Amino acid sequence: MKDEVAATFGWFPPSPRVVIGHQWAAAVVREVGDAHALKVENDFPTPQIKPGQVIVKNQYAGINFIDTYHRKGLYPRDLPFVGGQEGGGIVAAVSDEAAAEGIKVGDPVAYSVFGTYAQYTAVPASKLLPVPEGVGLDVATSCVVQGLTAHYLTTSAHADLIKPGEWCLIHGVGGGTCQWAAQMAKLRGFKVIGTCSKGKADIAKTLGCDELIVLNEVEGASYEDYESVDIVARVMEVTEGKGCKAVIDGIGKSTVDISINSLAHRGIFVSFGNASGAVPAFPVLRLIGKSAYVTRPKLLDYTVDRAELVWRANEVFGWLKEGKLNVSVDRCFPLDEAAEGHLYLEAGKSKGKVLYQID
């Protein structure tokens, strides 16, 4: 490892320098568009290390729906940009400041910053999560966006409006973030109603939901047919007419009415994703019938400092080591199949985490 790092970055312990001009592979968006807007370039400049940073040699990069929103321009970013914001790998070089914090070349780490669809990423030391022994780098990489998102959704975003023993509705528990959220909600003591497609029911049945509503599939879509079952009626039947004190909804446009109508009095609609399209504007007066709440949170606002980030990560990693979380890594694509990774996710084929494996 040190010989490779020295050749690449001009590594000299403890304060390496990055040689300007070295080039490595990265999946880059130069114009927003469909999945093929994500193009692998083998001559992208190696990142330059700055004070307080490390360089991570990535082994995995997570593929998340938010990456597709960036690629399509739904969430604008300055062009061009390297895709991704979830990575895991081995520390390849450290700044003096990072070394003073005890970070060493060779440490296995996971992290979230922009630009992870690449062989190397510059990462602030404050963003690093040391990967504990017994947790694989693929699983650790999966934790950083999906795992931590599920954590804040089930611990914080509901503003304590749901208590142990009360009902929570979680859409799309068959794949991705909500596989995590269903399990974490149970760990918090909530009673969980999950929705999933028929094709993902085998996975969803392993998550411990108290009630599973299985829906027809929508061919080529990343979400289910939410009109194939009267979900609100079923929710009210299961909850004896009370409804759910929290609804966790990453689907968006197709489920907004279902989510609001499934709420209990003084329940909260937690809308965190747009798999079927963005939630359209609606009058706040819609909430008056149940004195309901609504929030549209994001991960950055629930990892505002190092202490909060580490607290969430330690709890997630602890559950993994104790066997309380079952994390499904569905498929790994090589980085040179960047577009195919996005197409797979957007077609609704995943039954768990989708990753790029990076040489």
TrEMBL record:
CDD domains (alphabetical): QOR2 (cd05286)
InterPro entries with a match to the protein in the record: ADH-like_C, ADH-like_N, ER, GroES-like_sf, NAD(P)-bd_dom_sf, QOR-like
Keyword NADP: yes
Gene Ontology MF term list: oxidoreductase activity
Keywords annotated in UniProt: NADP, Oxidoreductase
Pfam families (UniProt xref): ADH_N (PF08240), ADH_zinc_N (PF00107)
SUPFAM superfamilies: GroES-like, NAD(P)-binding Rossmann-fold domains
Enoyl reductase (ER) domain boundaries: 33-356
Name listed for the protein in its UniProt record: Enoyl reductase (ER) domain-containing protein
